[in-house]
């Protein structure tokens, strides 16, 4: 979570502890608000875990992708170099001009298809007998890690959005608890002072903008 959301989460945890310590649930409205607060905190806790898992998966996949990208480029470079040696028509085995993942995948698929009928010529020119199998394996691994990275990013973004909306919903709960506590402990300045310290002097501000769901890379 972002620092602001973490601070809000910590406040809500302290509010729940306050409610327990001062028997807020003895009041019907208090029980309802306490239950809503507990449910919200449980949801956020789960979302925090999901958010972390998504971030770790995305980061790990990005590292693995860099390695596989280089390996795949080496495969394609060897095929393109051999194609030039064989004097094959220009454009048939050109390396991608763009460095995007999509361009690399499309190039690998094209090389695999175009090289099959010329397999013997490529092998006679020095490529290994299993060069096409190696290319196919590296392509499958590369596409798999791309999928993992997209899944990790999507998981993190969705969890972040869930935390965002939960924190926004918590404002209403906190404001209603504020009214309830002031009514229940109107004659007890010590408890009210403790309450103000627990929740802060102001309710959570309204959130000004929604988190953006970035498109998968």
What percentage of the residues does DSSP assign to strands (E)? under 5%
Q: Secondary-structure element sequence?
A: HHHHHH
Mean pLDDT: 90
- Supply the number of structural domains: 1
Low-confidence stretches: 202-217
- Can you give the helix content as a percent range? over 70%
Give the number of DSSP strands: 0
| Number of helices, counting only DSSP H or I runs of 4 residues or more | 6
Report the structural category.
Answer: mainly alpha
**Integer-rounded radius of gyration:** 29 Å
**Main sheet specs:** none
Shape: rod-shaped
Task: Compute the separation of the termini in Å.
Answer: 22 Å
Brief sketch in words of this structure:
This protein is an all-alpha fold and 217 residues long. It has helices at 3-21, 28-85, 101-115, 119-124, 131-184, 189-199. It has one domain.
Describe the structure.
It is a single chain. The protein is mostly helical. The chain has one domain (3-199). The protein contains six helices and no strands. The protein starts with a helix and ends in an 18-residue tail after the last helix. Residues 202-217 have low confidence and may be disordered.
Task: List the main descriptive attributes of the protein structure presented here.
single chain; 217 residues; mainly alpha; 6 helices; 0% strand; rod-shaped; disordered C terminus
In terms of topology, how is this protein built?
Blueprint: H1 3-21, H2 28-85, H3 101-115, H4 119-124, H5 131-184, H6 189-199
Helix pairs in contact: 1-2, 1-5, 2-3, 2-5, 3-5
